[in-house]
Amino acid sequence: MRYWNSWGTDTTEKPTITEGARQFVRENLGEGRILPQATLEEVCAKVPASRLPDHELICKDVEHRVRHARGQSLPDWVAMKSGVFDRFPDGVAYPETPDQIRELMDLAREKDFVIIPYGGGTSVAGHINPPALDKPVLTLSLEHMNRLVSLDTESQVATFGPGTPGPMVEAQLARSGYTLGHFPQSFELSTIGGWVASRSSGQQSLRYGRIEQLFAGGRLETFEGTLDIPTMPASSAGPDIREMVLGSEGRMGVLSEVKVRVSPTPEKEKFFVVYFPNWRDGFNCTKTAVQSRIPLSMLRLSNATETFTQLKLAGHEDLIAMLEKYLRFRNVDEGKCMLTFGITGTRAQYRAAHRQIRRLVRHYNGVGMTIGDRIGRIWEKGRFRFPYLRENLWQEGYAVDTLETSVDWSRVDNTLNAMEDALRGALADQGENVHVFTHLSHFYAQGSSIYTTYLFRCGETYEETVANWRKLKSAASQAVVAHGGTISHQHGVGRDHAPYLSAEKGELGMAAISTLCQRFDPEGRLNPGALLEA
Amino acid sequence: MRYWNSWGTDTTEKPTITEGARQFVRENLGEGRILPQATLEEVCAKVPASRLPDHELICKDVEHRVRHARGQSLPDWVAMKSGVFDRFPDGVAYPETPDQIRELMDLAREKDFVIIPYGGGTSVAGHINPPALDKPVLTLSLEHMNRLVSLDTESQVATFGPGTPGPMVEAQLARSGYTLGHFPQSFELSTIGGWVASRSSGQQSLRYGRIEQLFAGGRLETFEGTLDIPTMPASSAGPDIREMVLGSEGRMGVLSEVKVRVSPTPEKEKFFVVYFPNWRDGFNCTKTAVQSRIPLSMLRLSNATETFTQLKLAGHEDLIAMLEKYLRFRNVDEGKCMLTFGITGTRAQYRAAHRQIRRLVRHYNGVGMTIGDRIGRIWEKGRFRFPYLRENLWQEGYAVDTLETSVDWSRVDNTLNAMEDALRGALADQGENVHVFTHLSHFYAQGSSIYTTYLFRCGETYEETVANWRKLKSAASQAVVAHGGTISHQHGVGRDHAPYLSAEKGELGMAAISTLCQRFDPEGRLNPGALLEA
């Protein structure tokens, strides 16, 4: 069963937090502040009467409405933990066919309500939160449309229901020997339609591409009719309609079918972890690897604080002690930086890539290649476990959040430092420390994403906690924008990033996007407030 | 000097046509019909008075107007050869700065004229032809904005003037050890701005990507202001503005600066030609190569008729005789298909790719790998020479044109056959043969482009020639659309393909594109009639 007020499901093996980790956090941030948590019953009792009409496709049950009221942003957590939701959707629908989606949209026009398309509810930017409107709000959950509809093995194109979550995408493809290869951190819960709507990127985008490269076409139900996007490998015939749907965050229409480019399950895949004596060596190795097109499937370079923190929080204390001893022996100690990478392909391709990266790691003074696959296996096993740690920390009285951007290589260092500095100093006036660390991932010849995690102590109250988060988020977002970074490389815009979007799109770019949304949804009934502020 | 009524410049080494080739064409199509050609003087004498106002940036010289009146489509050739142009631009401007572009756009609004942005004038789909309008037409040639403005070697991003032609792009980058790697057939004359505006693709797109992947940002001057597109390696923040500009064919604005992703000059590059005993083997080898991600930089598979025709037309008669003898000895004879491929990269990557493709070619009964690089060098030397052959054939009384699409793998065979059949039969009612052959190139895991060339005899008159071309073009275009192919994989839409665009975009897709164009150019002053019929 999915948790109603936390990440994940109760059937998943979760990480634990060791005494050493607990002590590390306490030393850095002070004694945690454990705030009282509301129960599901208490929250359900607060849900007001629904303003939606009765309809066989609309469920007005209060628990359903609570469970679809919020995503996974930090303000969402504060709402779920405190029980102060402000708003709930007036109902939830679970259509099973494109026709039912259309039926609900027709009803929305007739009965004057708005619709929030809902995939896995994993947004960390407020994509699916009910807006403050006089009109009733229907959350349209696509979770029942979760099947592999067809698979063209010759063209390697698979057609899915839009609400298919990551594990069901992979399991249904695996039966025929295929993979999509899209593994965002939210993989366990997020859906293929959500990936398209929010321009998602997965851990192995270096091989498989971002969702922009994987999305081949499909159907979008709009208020002006159905937009059918046929599959074609490429076209020079005018602007690409796919690219207008990608990132439209439910403002243009509801995806009722998603076609994606799949690949045969690779013959061989392994992940490795190696260590560099300092940031500069790791940075140069990674940049060179991607710019010289070494065919890796993932790369992730942690800065010294992230490396240090991960080793503290990882568990596996005996193994880590042994590793640290070995690294010291190889003169990789204080300031060391961890690089995680994956090699995927045919056996011949695997061998070729392994040879190339091994040589490069050595050239840049990296060590640990020989034992690197053992730690790589630990990473692989826990690759979707990180979000669960948020709950562990919360229970100790600490909040954790992440933010990210991407910039050209010539701006990576300055942007990273500015983001970290902004976060570290944001609560100084209250005498509160913020523990900040960063990795680069999602590498491109042109630049890299920058992914920063920050831990801070909960406030005395929920209000103070969310107020502190706002200070942190706003300071870091301003730093991102000031350095020419995108307000999001992989989380999307939602409501939390909307105020910063115009910095990268410009006035005319914003006008273009807004014109498109209006063209497909002239009455503004679809997810108002997401992507565009108005 | 650029030819005013043919492809290319008079300083380029051109291919010659052998007696054997001449005979081959004559046997297939009958005696050529050589039509009388107009001279430049005759055409200049027909140019009407300009309707444009006097302005220091506007040149009204008749020869300039003749030289910018048409592109390189077959109807354009008929116009240029016959001297019957119908329309000329009322003037040509050669702005040198973004400000001068804006000045001319302001003037267009003030004096009520329309503007056709003009790159290299290499369109084969009627992109830059003056429309039939009451308003004066200014052709805005960007040829003076042809410089590398800046190069960020760390991020591998280069900023160019929009009118920089292929050879100047490469030469200016080569000085710093970089390449763009974009080599369309029109490379010698087409420009970087034109590539973006028409969503171009180059011969080595397998390595470097299409222009969509290379275009990193820049400036578009629109009637609503300047659209600045900042460079970022990737973003999930809403629909991608770059993708709206790509393929906008001058309808949204005039590119005044183009930023592209460049690569270091590769350590090693070679091209190879090998032969398969039949289409099926060649098809399977090529499809497997691309779907299993063998890191090649180009692939081009000719069908049996193209292979046969190329060997007939290639010149190098002794070498070809020797080759054919060798192939017969290896049981590769009638029905054989030629595969051209390129390997590009570091030495280690070259070796790895060479090993992988060699094994695959052998597996699919391909032969000639050991001597393949010698013929590959001939291909490389002549890679931009093919368009010159059109003039040779024209002088013999024959017309040649090409058309292309892309489709998913499961549709390639049927679409290819339908296109060829449509062309072969299109002039049957007149008892005219059409010589048709095809290659696949621009490969994707999902499918392939299909590039078909057709030769036919000129008509008794120019009118008959262009009428026959219309029958051919329309038959093939209908076949493309009926099989779900894009109306263009690399040539763009222009005016010739505009009637077929809605087949792939759908009514709503067309509405989206049209809405965007109107948002940026509310009065319809930019290239009216291109891309969208209205």
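Chain A has a mean pLDDT of 96.
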